[in-house]
Amino acid sequence: MDDYTPAAPVVEKEKVRSGSIGRKDLARASASDGILYDIRGLEVFFPVRETFFKAMVSTEKRWVRAVDSVSLTIFAGEILALVGESGCGKTTTGRTILGLEKQTGGQIIYKGLEVGRFTPGAIRDYRRHCQIIFQDPYNAINPKHTIFDIVSEPLVVNHLVSNERDKEERVIRALEEAGLRPARDYLYRYPHELSGGQRQRVCIAGAIVLEPDMIVADEPVASLDVSIRNDILKLMVAHKKELGVTYLFITHDLSLAWVISDRIAVMYLGKIVEIGETEEVVSNPKHPYTKALISVIPVPDPTAKRERTILSGETPNPAAIPSGCRFHPRCPERIDICSEQSPVDVQIRGTHYAACLRLNGQSSS
Amino acid sequence: MSTVESGTAAAATASEKGQRIEHEGILDVRDLKAYFKLRDGDVKAVDGVSFLLEHGKSLGLAGESGCGKTTAALAILKLLPENGRIVSGEVLFDGKNLAKRTEYGMSKIRWKDISIIFQGAMNALNPVQPVGKQIAEPIILHEGLSENKAMVRARELFDLVGINPKRVTEFPHEMSGGMRQRAMIAMALACNPKLIIGDEPTTALDVMVQAQILELIERLRHELNLSFILISHDLSVMAETCDTGVIMYAGKVVEAGTTTQIFNSAAHPYTKQLIRAFPNIHERREMVSSIAGDPPNLLNPPPGCRFFPRCSEGEPACTETEQEMVELDPGHFARCWKVA
To answer: Which residues of A touch B65 (CB under 8 A)?
Structure first.
């Protein structure tokens, strides 16, 4: 989007290097002004597979616009929550940042270097700096490997350890940081001997053993029990504070995002509709979608009587995006222009931005 | 299917004609015990559970995974897997003791009087059969309707749960998760049951779809005067949808009462800690707390209070005697001697 207003100070254009970027450049790079990632107009489109006949007849190719010009700044050492319903593109955004999905447009700038220009060697190094934790700890780890094998594998493939003792020390440290204490008891166990929460801790240990700058946590607690869920959330906060790890916390549950994140970005159908400091977004939501999401969160208090805005239907098909504001068919506050104009980000207060046409008249700053 | 008693179809008919048992409410579960047989012994998954569901009310059965809430529901319908069995206790429904019924006798009750919405609608539907046909099946079976008439009823049910009736011919993979869950609800309603058990009906769904489904259940409950048992690990969902609640821990009920009693004056240390594990977005922001430790192994549950090893308020005396339910207020019970 050309008319995008950046939600935070952006690295000036000239700071972004042109030409290919090698391993040495990556090793020298640092997060200037505390900005770890600066994502500009990121687009990830997937082609729609048509039947042979349709493909012959139709003139234009159809695309699923999973991520549609998303601009986002991720500061070093923060927990940024990316919240939205399933199919809104939050997972695709996370995967694209890690290079697991190919972007079709836009730029991902990591420590002032554009990821798209990395040489193959630099990409390998880059992957060491950003890791992922998957949703389902039951399928994410190899059942035939011991915990030691699983956690030490990233060290081995990246040639980061010179001898066995060093390897064991680092694995033990990672397991302890992931809350598996005493770590020696776990080293030679197999995943089936562990509970779901312990497996998720193994996944986390496998991610932090490389001492990454950022971890994309893709619904890390969705398949865990409440009590274990809270332990994992606490662990993420502890890593942020003690190890300085940046987390991109992808979740559909805004209440969990509210508990641990520093900032929240709400995504709808491939676009970020609202972003800001967590407390600010939750106490003063401006986009109707955010308001609705907050209103339907169940709370453990049967006496709390409140207005709930239940949106009808589900996220529309991202291959057939509604005109104007993409949220207008489900929006309880829509006005006539919503089906014609695309909203732009409006600054609410400080770093709080929302993209809704109804806000345009109210704020001219 | 293992049962307490196994008998022939004739025996079942005899017991059906037998004495009607007087009991309160629509479902009265008394001291139900359901064990699973393993090589090492019996897993006491449900160990003396009692609760009462009034006509037209909703009851929430909550607890961490492995506390026996799903086993209790399966035991009510006698759908326990091969190695499971009801050891003792009574499940009184509509003047009959379901725990003593035969498989044939149960087949007359399942879906006709009590139906269940299974956990994970994604996997509970047959992927190679149109959804409408699957809904029509119990109607044909229980009400003896022709296939065409049953399909008409399936269309009406689709309309009732908010799916376009034209979609009855679709297969499960053509529907979204929320819609499949709606189809499951339509299926549960197929034979106008009196009681519906929802086993984690919204667990795999998004917050917004969850709100839609819970609103739908709430609406249908009032329109059709249904009684409802919600099984959920999510206390917030229970707080919002149920009239009464039962908190289970390690196969036993630790606290029971109205949802207001449970949430506003929780008495059992487990209930208190569990409530604190859920964030309340309308209150002050704070880190959610977790309960240290794991639930006990139900092969050999610890003596005395089963929550003692994880309890922050425990005393050595807790391990000495089996805890009894203590009545705190009318209708509000907790299994902890310290609250008496």
So the answer is: 225
Q: Which residue of A has its CA nearest to B275?
A: A300
Order across the sheet with B84-93: list the strands: B41-53, B27-38, B84-93, B96-97
Question: d(Cα A15, Cα B123) in Å, to the nearest integer?
Answer: 52
Query: What is the reported pTM?
Result: 0.87
Kindly provide the ipTM of the predicted complex, given to two decimals: 0.84
pLDDT digits (tens, 9 = 90+) for A261-315: 999 999 999 999 999 999 999 999 999 999 999 999 998 888 877 788 888 877 7
The nearest alpha carbon in chain A to B261 belongs to: A302
Are A296 and B210 a contacting pair at CB < 8 A?
Answer: yes
Nearest to B271 by CA among B241, B248, B237: B248
Provide CB contacts within 8 A for B134, sequence distance 6+.
B125, B126, B187
Domains, chain A: 13-359 (3.40.50.300)
Q: How far apart are CA A173 and CA A204, in angstroms?
A: 12
- H-run or E-run covering B90: strand B84-93
CB-closest option in A253, A282, A298 to B239: A298
Q: What is the CATH number of domain B9-113+193-339?
A: 3.40.50.300
The nearest CA of chain B is from the CA of A308 a distance in Å of: 9
Q: Letter for the amino acid at A294?
A: I
Q: Tell me whether residues B274 and A260 touch, CB distance under 8 A.
A: no
Q: What is the phi-psi region of residue B310: left when phi exceeds 0, alpha when psi lies from -120 to 50, beta otherwise?
A: alpha
Tens digits of per-residue pLDDT, A90-122? 999 999 999 889 999 999 999 989 998 899 889
Residue A297: name the closest of B64, B282, B247, B244 by CA: B282
The answer to whether residue B259 neighbours chain A at the CB level (below 8 Å) is: yes
Side chain identity at A86, as an amino acid letter?
Answer: S
Q: Mention every residue, 6+ apart, whose C-beta is less than 8 A from residue B218.
A: B241
Q: Which residue of B has its CA nearest to A303?
A: B260
| Cβ within 8 Å, pair B263-A297 | no
Question: Chain A: which residues have CB within 8 Å of chain B?
Answer: 85-86, 195, 225-231, 233-234, 237, 252-256, 258-260, 278-279, 282, 292-294, 296-304, 306, 308, 310-312, 314
Query: Exposed, middle or buried, B292 (CB in 10 Å: 0-12/13-18/19+)?
Result: exposed
